[in-house]
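Subject: for your reference before the review

Hello V.,

The reviewers asked for a structural picture of the protein, and I figured it would be easier to keep everything in one thread rather than splitting it across files. Below is the amino acid sequence we used in the manuscript, unchanged from the supplementary table.
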Amino acid sequence: MERILEKIDSPRDLKDLPFEELPRLAEEIREFLLDTVYTTGGHLGSNMGVVELTLALHRVFDFSRDRLLFDVSHQCYTHKLLTGRRESFHTL
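And here is what came back from the structure prediction:
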């Protein structure tokens, strides 16, 4: 089965994704974060807690126009994945 996360390169891709696939995408994001942080190190708990929140924000808002502010950078891993930075994520 093809992974949904591999097809998400921009917030537009997320908005085009059927609502029913969001839980599977959230699961794939968590798996990706676990694998990456296990290898490179980094903050895990705070990121695992904001996956659905970040998906919802990206579905509702247009961050090319709207602004999003995280109080700490280690809560924005999902945001980075959804905005085309998945391939360089290993450089955390």
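For the response letter, the relevant points are probably these. The longest helix spans residues 22-40. The chain has one domain: 5-91.

Happy to draft the paragraph if you're swamped.

O.
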